Structure formats: structure tokens, C-alpha cells
Amino acid sequence: MPTEVIEHREAASATPRKLSTVRGRQDVLFRAAARSGGTTVLLIMTLVGVFLFVRGFDAITDAGTAFITTEAWSPNEGNFGIAAVLFGTVTIATIAIVLAVPLSIGTALYISEFAPRGLKRSLITIVDLMAAVPSVVYGLWGFLWLTDAILPIAEWISTHFGWIPIFDVDGFEPGDPLSTTTVFTASAFIAGIVVGLMVTPIASSIMREAFSQAPVGEREGALALGATRWGMVTSVVLPFGRGGIIGGTMLGLGRALGETIAVYLVISPVFVIQPNILQTGTNSISSLVALRFNEASEFELSALMAAGLALFLMTLVINFGASMVIARSRSGAESEG
Amino acid sequence: MMTELLERPDEPTLFSTHLPGRDGEAPGATKPPQTRRNLSTLHRDDVIRLLGALAAGICTAAWLFTQVMPLRGAVGFVAISFVLFLLYYVVLVAMDDGGPAMKDKVASVFAHAIAMLLFAALACVIIFTFARAFDALVNLNFWTTDLSAAGPIDPLDKGGILHAMVGTLIMITIALAISIPLGVLTAVFLSEVPGPFARLVRTVVEAMTALPSIVAGLFIYATWIVAFGMGQSGFAASLAMTIMMLPIIIRAADVVLRLVPGNLKEAALAMGASQWRTVWHVVLPTTRSGLTTAIILGTARGIGETSPVLLTAGYTTYMNHNPFEGPMVSLPLATFNLVRSPEPNQVARGFGAAAVLMLLVLFLFVVARVIGGRGPGQLSPRQAARRQRQSRSDVIRFAAREGHVLLDPRAHRSTRRRR
Fold this sequence. Notes:
The complex is a heterodimer of chains A (337) and B (419). Chain A is 71% helix and 1% strand. Chain A is mainly alpha-helical. Chain B has 3 domains: 44-137, no CATH class; 162-372, MetI-like fold; 388-414. Chain B is flat and about 75 Å long. Chain B is an all-alpha fold and 419 residues long. Chains A and B meet through helix 2, helix 4, helix 5, helix 6 and helix 7 of A and helix 3, helix 4, helix 6, helix 7 and helix 8 of B.
């Protein structure tokens, strides 16, 4: 008897049974509808991407490598490039992310680990709501409140750390009673703080999601071995949530790079590379587009598209990096209930 | 045998051991009252330390500001007292505890302090906006009229931003009417019809979440307005918003749909349901709350975004109900235009528009929570009643099918009540 069974199994594994699915009319319709929805979205998105590439390439091929190295922006005379705006964009985003990362990690840890249980749900709602506060509101706040409030601090930093090149400010003498603080207004520093506050809620809510998924068994194991709460956080929660931290940071960085209105309201645009972050005047790609689209000629529009394309590619690289990191981490791996 | 003995220890048996010292613990005797051990991590010492460090930090900052260094500004004061508070706290904790206990306490205070700092900063943003908007918001005409009759120097009891409210609602409605069906359908496609094509769509959608909003606006401006010559209109702005919102909605909905437990779907399929029925009756209801969140995320981004509207909608002070013709203004765009005016009244109107926008977002959140906040399987009273009616009629239907005597529904109900 047992030999027979084995023979049967061998026969079965030798030629696998063909499984064919016969779907009902309802299912065929459903799948066709779903597929057409996917196709429509694919078409729209490809159209946007391809259009941007084609129009942008007109301007890029016209300018050549000067597109990367030129600081000025007068496309109609053929003298234009994104060096200054790109530098400004990166500066503002860097300041924003330097501020946002500790803030968002701290807030996410507080909500997922330290907050009283009764308060947790409402704190999550508050953070989600803050992520929905329109950027123009942050811009207004930065432009009309923060600029005045931050000037003494900018002045202080410049006075005491002016020997570090990036904190140096032209035309400001620390001891001079006649020197004004207007050289500190509308700087990359202020724009960076505003954008940093803007992206913190989003980054923080992604990080909190990752932290709260840390397995209870491992948490309890750490506590049972005598770890303090902070010991448990460093040995279980943070390693588990590393993907969330990196992913949240990169998503925040992507938002910070593309932010338009808050930056536009705060800064005063200049077309030179401005390495002194405390000094008046900086620029970003998105505020350049907002500034120039209106009276743009056909060719200048292409040049703006090219600048937009550069911004898009930069954000794209960062986003794909983020999703790769998130996909590789342990967070969110389990979906079988 | 043993267990029986153990269960009745009060009966004197041959096997029980009599310990004189333990008589007080015999059942029936009064036990000493039990006190709950305090499991809270917050002790009196911690509170005293915190308050002490806080007082010391503020006082030292005040001393620094007034006596030592010529510093000024409220933000600087808060920042310096904050840093000093943390320093004092570390020193205080280090006096009593060492090693892991100290690290734990310091880290805990750091986390609390950072969260508080963020909440304070955001409260500052919101309070500042509402404070500056107050003068405009208290006038009823601000809510009920448009700006066409009011010039920049007119007082605040003339003119309002009704046109911007209407414009925002029209634009977001059109954008949602396109992006919700298309977005949810695509998300369902990505998770239910997997394959190489679905992977391609997912990759492209993920790439497009990186599209900066201004570039979405620029695309519509260059095609719809410049190339097709359609002119700036509310509909163009809705299209720009849709391009921006679609990837966000699809991505968030896709994540939620992928989290549906596989055994739920398998259960439905194993009972003979078609794929369509499984999606409609199991997958979508299970993820309703998550899908709502995805849609809110997209809506909140779309409604508050100024840059695509700036390029595509144009600016007007007149009420315009027609999204296909003429410029139409939205709340963020009105804010953006009004606050750049040198006239204080226009600035107040701009803040008013920003405040109304925030209220609108808050309102949408509440509505979405009411509609979609319930988890899977939790029914509203009306839904529960409908389901009960349905299953009652099913009982009758089955009974009739099996050849039993068809019960009168009313009779059936009365029997149920009696039970």
C-alpha cells in the first residue's frame, strides 16, 4: 500500500495539473474596468512626464552645460541656468531637514512611547491636522511673525559664529551701533525654519507609524530583561523603526524641495549663489517658476519647464530612495491577519 | 484525590498540616488590606526635579537677558531657558541616579520637551493667523459678500471672500469627482489584478508623487492655457489639482488595500463569491476607514495648495459660478494676493481667508471622521437595523425554500419578541 501512494505522488509532481481559471462575466467586467482605470492613470502620468521632458529638453539643449553652471536667469537673451536657484533650493531644504528630523523623531517617539494612553489618539489627530495646515498659512506666519522674532537670534549667531563662513553676513558689523538688522530678513535661514516646521508633521506621522508597529513581544522581552523604557526604545523600537525614520526624512525632504508658496512669501529672490545662510536673499526653483511664469515667452516657459524638470528629477531620486529603504525594512511586512 | 483535598482546605483531614503561626491566614479570617503598588513611572521626586529645573532655567535666562548679555526677543528667551532647563535637569538627575536610570529620565524629558516645542510652535502658527484674522472674521459681510465692491482702502465692514469660498468648493469638488473614482479604481487594480502591468503603473504613480505641485500647475498652464488657448479658469485649476492629488490618493489607498488580511479575502472566495463580490463586500468595507484617510490626505493637500491654482485659475474679486469660463479664485490664492498688499485692511482680509481655509480643512476632517472613522465591522445603529431586517427576511426566504410553512413576518417577529 505505501509504495502505491508514493507512486501516485511522483506521478503528480512529474506533470503538474493545469489550473485554469474561468471567470464569470461580472469578474471579467470588473477586471476590465480596473485595468482601464490603471491605464488611464498611467496615460495621464506619462503624458505629464513626457511633456515635461520634451519641453524641458528644448531649453536644456539650447543652453548646454551652461544650464547647470549659470547663475543668471534671462532666457530671452539666452543667458540662463539653474546654479543659483538649485543652490538656494538645496540650502533651504537642508536647513529645513536639519530642523525637522530631531523634531519629528522626538514627537513620534513621544506619541508612540511616552504619551499617556488617553492622550495618544488625540495627539495623532492633532499631528495629522497639522500636516493639513495649508502652506500659505505657514508662509504668512514666517513672513509676518517669525521674521521679526528670529532676527535677534540670527544676529546673535552671526556675531558669535561669524567666523564660520556660512554664518557670516556681509555688511553687518557686530559692534557698530548704526548697523541694522535688515540684512538678516528674508534669508534662507528663515525660509528653512518655516519649511522645516511645515514638513515635521508629515515626517513625524510616518515615523510614528513605524515605531508603533514594533512587535509587542520584543518590547516586553526587553522590559522583562530589566531594560528601562529608554533602553527598550533604543534596543527595540529605534532599530525596528529605522526604515520609518529614513523614509519619513526623505519624504519630508521631497516636500521641502518642492515647497513654493511658503518660500516665495518669505524670501527675496536673488540670482547669485548665496552661501551665507543668514543673509537676505536666496531663491528656489519653485518660487522662480511662481515668479516668472506670468510674463514668460514661449522659450522662457520651456526654460521654466527645464528648471521644473531638474526639481522633479531631484525629488524623484529622493522618493525612490525612500521607498527602497522602507521596502527593505521590517516595518509593515506582516499583512496576514 | 489530592486536588479535592487542596480545594477544601478548611475541612480538617488527616493529611493537612497544622502550622500554628499561619492561623491568621486561614480562609474566613480578615486579610490585611492590599495596597496597589504604584506602577506609574512618574514619582514625586521627578515632579519636584522638573519644576526646580524649570524655575532655575527661566531665572538664569532672565538673569542672562537683563544683567549679563544684551539679548532681546521672546523666541531667544524661550530657547535659552529651554536649553538651560535641560542642563539643570541633567545635573539634578545625575545627583541621584546614575547609568541607565539617568539616561532613561533624561531621554524621557527630551522626548516630552521636543513634542511640546513642536506643538507650541504650531499653536503659535494657528493662533497668530486667527488673531490677525479676527478683525475681518467678526464682520458678517466677510462671510456673505464678494470683494468686487470693496477697494483696498475700504474698511472691513465692506466686502468679503464668499467668492473665494465658492471657488475653492467648486474646484475641489471637480477635482475630487475625477480623482476619487479614478484613484480608488486604480488602487483596487494595483492590489487585486497584480502582474507586470500593475507593477509598471505602481512605479509610475510612485514616481509622480514626487511631482512638485508647482510643476503640475506649470504643466496645465503650458498645455491647457497656452497651447490650447483655453484661458485661466476654475476647471484648469481643478485639472492641476487632480494631477497633484491622484498619485497621493492612489499611493495611500494602495498601501491600505494591501493590508487587508488575506484570510478574509480567501474566506469570501472559498464561499463561492466572485472576485468582484469579494472586492465590493469584503475588501472595500474592510478598508473604508483607510480609504477615507487616503482621500482626506489628498483633499487636504489639494485644497490648501496655492501654487497650481496660482498658475491656472487667475485672480478675480468677482463671484464666478462657472468653472469653465473666466478666472476663479480660491481661498489660498486670495490669501496670497491679499497679504502682499500694503493696505492693513487687505492684509486682514488675507488672514481672514487663511483662517476660513483652515476652518474648512478642519470641517472636512470632522466630516470624514464621521463618515469613515468607524472600523471594519462596526455598524451605525441604522446599518445594524438594516442588517437585522435583511437577515430576518433571509430566514423567511430559506424557510420557504425548504418547504416549511411560510411564516407571516409579523407572526415571526412576535415570536422573536416573546423569546
